[in-house]
Amino acid sequence: MDWVKDFYAKQQQWSGVYTSAVSDYNRKRALQLQSMAGVGRKSVLELGAGGGQNAFATAELGYDVTAIELLEESAVHATGLVRHLRNGSLHVLQADFYEIRLGATYDVISYWDGFGIGQDSDQVRLLRRIAQWLNRDGVVIMDIYSPWYWARFAGQEMSFHGVTRRYEFDAFGSRMIDRWWPDAAPEKGAAQSLRCYSPADLKLLLDDTGLVLVDLEIVPGGMVDYEKGAYIEETSLDQCMQYTVKLVRAY
């Protein structure tokens, strides 16, 4: 998975997404975590935290958040948010969550908008690590990419600030491919490939990971109406870009 760091570094360079301000969307994600995980002073481990915007919003609800982020620039931005906290706590670790050794367990583990990197065996390896980090009564809250949406909108392109983004879909592997390139130098582009799972496929993937699926939500998974250029938050499972699952320990 050598492409991972290169892709996210270039995505940041071209869009600035990981050094943006904390938004209403980030606060909505934090409220979703609170709804699915419960209120109270809980410990939260966030994987792939980006610039820390969701982690910050979660901490502000009174949680003690540990955020793991691969890229140095994004981790530095997340660390910079800590001084603005008025509630909870936020601790940022720059590391690869496939490799890091953690000496603690957590009440909640979240992974927003990123699950599916690598092959099924990589997902299983990560899920087993998550199960080991999770407290006995804890919950995992994680976004899963929907195959139906990405198959339907394969070929969709958009351009901004001299960069073009194109969605593709590998039907055989059930993978969303997100390709970016600078218009002046297409050969310097980058792409990410994320495995998409139906809920039935996800349940099969969870076998022997120590985790089970107990709930899912499709808001704010939403969809984009590309003709109108509008984001539609409330839609159906077969229409949404991604859905959010709640997992617990199997035993």
What are the defining features of this structure?
7-stranded mixed sheet; alpha/beta; single chain; 4-stranded antiparallel sheet; 7 helices; 251 residues; globular
Order of helices and strands: HHEHEHEEHEHEEEEHEEEE
- Fraction of residues in H or I helices: 25-40%
By DSSP (H or I, 4+ residues per run), the number of helices equals: 7
How is the biggest beta sheet arranged?
7 strands, mixed
Low-confidence parts: none
Percent of sequence in beta strands: 25-35%
Overview of the molecule:
The protein has helices at 3-15, 24-37, 53-59, 72-81, 120-133, 147-152, 199-206, and strands spanning 43-47, 64-69, 89-94, 106-111, 134-145, 157-160, 163-170, 175-182, 190-195, 211-217, 223-225, 230-232, 242-249. The protein is of the alpha/beta class and 251 residues long. The strands form 3 sheets. The protein has a 7-stranded mixed sheet with strand order 3-2-1-4-5-13-10, sandwiched between helices. Strands 6-7-8-9 form a 4-stranded antiparallel sheet. It has a two-stranded antiparallel sheet with strand order 11-12. Helix 2 (24-37) packs across helix 3. The mean pLDDT is 96.
